[in-house]
Amino acid sequence: MAKIDKLNDFIVEEKIIWQDKKRILGMPISFTKYSFSENRLFIQKGFFRVVKDELLMYRILDVRLKKTFWQRIFKVGTIELSTADKSTPIIYLENIKDPDRTRDALSSIAEKERDEKRVLGKEMFGTANDGSIAHDSFID
User: Fold this and answer.
1) Which domain holds residue 66?
2) How many domains does the chain have?
3) How does DSSP assign 33-57, residue by residue?
4) Angle value at C-alpha 28, between 107 and 47, nearest 5 degrees
5) Which of left, alpha, beta for 130 (phi over 0: left; psi -120 to 50: alpha)?
6) Angle at 92 between CA 34 and CA 62, to 5 degrees
7) Each residue's pLDDT tens digit, 11-23
8) Of 23, 130, 137, whose CA–CA distance to 76 is shortest?
9) What is the pTM of this model?
10) Where are the alpha helices (DSSP H) in the chain?
11) Rounded distance between C-alpha atoms, residue 100 and residue 123, angstroms
12) Of 29, 34, 95, 138, which is the most exposed, with the fewest CB atoms less than 10 Å away?
C-alpha cells in the first residue's frame, strides 16, 4: 500500500526580500542567518544543532536600532524587535549590514501587515486586566 503524503499541498513558498548573516568584525562568517519575506521573519542558528525560528510580521510591536562604536566602525548594527510572541518576546538581529534600511523596511512591513489583517491593539497587547475581577471592598 502506498504511503499518502499531501504536505506539499499546504506548503507555500514565500519570496525572500532580504537576507543577511550575523557578522563578526564585519564579515559574514557566523552560522546565524536572518531573512524575511512580506509575511514572516526567519532566523536560523547553529551548525551542529540547527534551530529555525519564524515570526509573523504583524506580531512585531516595536523596532529599535542599536549601534555601538565598534559596530559603526564595521558598518553593522543590531536591530531589537519587541514582539507579541510568547516564546520570543524580544528578537535581536545582531551585527547585520545596512541596519538603517533594514529597520525601516521591517517597520513598514509590520505596519502594513497589521493594517491588512486589521489587527487591533487589544488583540496585540491583551486587555487592560488579566480577566480577573477586582476584589474591592464595598460599603453597603
Assistant:
1) 16-120
2) 1
3) EEEE-SSEEEEEE-SSS-EEEEEEG
4) 100
5) alpha
6) 110
7) 888 899 999 999 9
8) 23
9) 0.79
10) 69-73, 99-117, 121-125
11) 29
12) 138
